[in-house]
Design brief:
Blueprint: H1 5-15, E1 31-35, E2 38-41, E3 46-49, H2 52-55, H3 64-76, H4 87-99, E4 104-110, H5 113-128, E5 132-136, H6 145-149, E6 168-171, H7 191-203, E7 206-211, H8 227-237, E8 241-245, E9 269-272, E10 284-289, H9 290-298, H10 311-326, H11 329-350, E11 354-360, E12 363-368, H12 381-385, H13 391-401, E13 404-405, E14 407-409, E15 412-415, H14 423-436, H15 438-441
Parallel strand pairs: 3-13, 5-6, 5-7, 7-8, 8-9
Antiparallel strand pairs: 1-2, 2-3, 4-10, 9-10, 11-12, 12-15, 14-15
Helix pairs in contact: 3-10, 4-10, 7-8, 11-14, 13-14
The protein binds pyridoxal-5'-phosphate.
Length: 451
């Protein structure tokens, strides 16, 4: 007999771990089906998926071409060991050359973003013969040993110090709204990049600098235009690799195939996952330059997984890229993202609790503050780790009650709908946010009444 929705939730709660939380507060919604920009819960309610699940279902749900490819691949060749060549692998590799930043020509496939980063760190260390990775505080790079060690945000804290890999040092992120080194753009001359150079020169043994070109979960932080050309030069002058983690910012999310395309910079290693298959199957990618690839012609490539280049993961990536091209989704992300941006900027003018609105393409953050001048957030990282109810979670719950799902994080929302989202759907989501933000506005000292 089919399980009731209550049974599904109860069994899930009892036998599974809810990620990144104290377990007692986990109340998962039963997702039954999904189509386009909506998913349906166990009570038959349709919810507008305004963060594309985890900023990953870029094509929208239930894309028939991708689903057909999964079925075809299962019928033809569901698995082959990584030492074999497969048609899916060759076709995807050829296609990647068309969409990745020019110069990234050799690929290692994984089944997640975190594993793509693990591969990147090992490759960087083997290639340079050096150890340290410089990462930035406001960042997330994954949950496995080295990736969590390279993660600046507090999801790393419970693993400190014994439970994480060694060899990562943290530098300042680029955050022009709330600069960690209290500078102001453009007078700063991009001092946050200069400080990374200072670190490289004083640390010694630095293999790579690791960045999310547009920081994702930690608040869609955008670099000024000079940042990446400058960081590229710093890395080159100091013999250090640049690793771009485009797990979230890739695949049209920012209005380019990859975020670094905005600044014409090619990293030495690019990692990605999520949108590569629109998350229909778990696939990650670690792409390197030909120069790094050449090194391993004569050096042992000490990395691999049973599921590396798994045909069931690669074939849907081919279909995803073709669908993105057919639907012109990269250009669409830029165009319709500008519309979303305009709507969000008008919310900022109306709600005193909004400190900042920023984004590119269909990748936006709305950051809430208690006070516009101090920019103090409503909650602290420690409160999040302690499982205290956060203001943003209350707002997200209110939006969910009115049929819109968004990702809330500490004191901001990440708005990143599927790239097929319509203007009408954007209007619905922004109206729900507008209404729910009253919850934050009334918490402000000297709150200005919102009409
Ligand atoms: C920038 C970034 N890197 C790495 C990861 C880890 O990817 P995965 O969850 O597939 O391991 C994420 C996940 O959200 C991410 O946003």
């Amino acid at each position: 007999m089919a399980l009731t929705s209550e049974e599904v939730v109860a069994l899930t709660r009892k036998h599974n771990y809810g990620t990144w939380r104290k377990q007692k507060s986990w109340k998962p919604v039963h997702v039954v089906s999904a189509d386009g920009c909506y998913f349906t819960d166990g009570a038959g309610r349709s919810l507008l998926d305004f963060s594309a699940q985890l900023m990953c279902v870029n094509l929208g749900h239930n894309n028939p071409a991708v689903i057909q490819t999964i079925q075809d691949q299962a019928a033809t060749l569901p698995y082959a060991a990584p030492s074999y060549a497969t048609t899916a692998r060759a076709e995807l590799s050829r296609l990647l050359l068309d969409v990745l930043p020019a110069g990234l020509t050799k690929f290692f496939f994984t089944t997640s973003g975190t594993e793509a980063n693990e591969a990147a760190f090992k490759i960087a260390r083997m290639y340079t013969g050096k150890t340290k990775i410089i990462a930035r505080y406001r960042s997330y790079h994954g949950s496995t040993n080295s990736s969590i060690a390279a993660t600046g945000d507090p999801r790393r804290w419970p693993m400190e110090p014994a439970g994480k890999g060694q060899g990562v040092v943290f530098g300042p992120e680029v955050n022009c709204y709330k600069c960690p080194i209290r500078h102001t753009y453009p007078g700063c001359g991009i001092a946050c990049a200069d400080y990374l150079e200072h670190m490289i020169r004083n640390e010694s043994d630095v293999a790579a600098v690791l960045v999310e070109p547009v920081v994702g979960t930690n608040g869609v932080l955008l670099p000024p235009p000079e940042y990446f050309p400058k960081l590229r030069r710093i890395c080159d002058e100091n013999g250090v690799l640049l690793i771009a983690d485009e797990v979230m910012s890739g695949w049209g999310r920012t209005g380019r195939w990859f975020a670094l395309d905005h600044w014409g910079v090619t990293p030495d290693i690019l990692t990605t996952a999520k949108g590569i298959t629109s998350a229909y199957v778990p696939l990650g990618l670690c792409a390197t330059t030909g120069k790094i690839a050449d090194f391993f012609e004569e050096h042992f490539f000490a990395h691999g997984h049973t599921y590396e280049a798994h045909p069931m993961t690669l074939a849907p990536a081919i279909a995803t890229i073709h669908e993105m091209q057919r639907l012109n989704l990269v250009a669409r992300s830029e165009e319709i993202g500008a519309y979303l941006g305009e709507k969000l900027f008008s919310l900022r003018a109306k709600h005193p609790s909004i400190g900042d609105v920023r984004g590119l393409g269909l990748f936006w953050a709305v950051e809430l503050v208690k006070d516009q001048h101090t920019k103090e957030p409503f909650n602290t990282w420690q409160e999040k780790l302690d499982g205290k109810p956060l203001v943003v979670d209350q707002i997200a719950a209110k939006m969910m009650a009115s049929g819109v799902s968004v990702q809330a994080w500490m004191s901001h929302f990440v708005l990143a709908p599927p790239l097929i989202v319509s203007r009408a759907e954007i209007d619905i989501a922004v109206a729900a946010l507008d209404e729910a933000l009253v919850l934050a506005d009334v918490l402000l000292e000297n709150a200005v009444p919102v009409s």
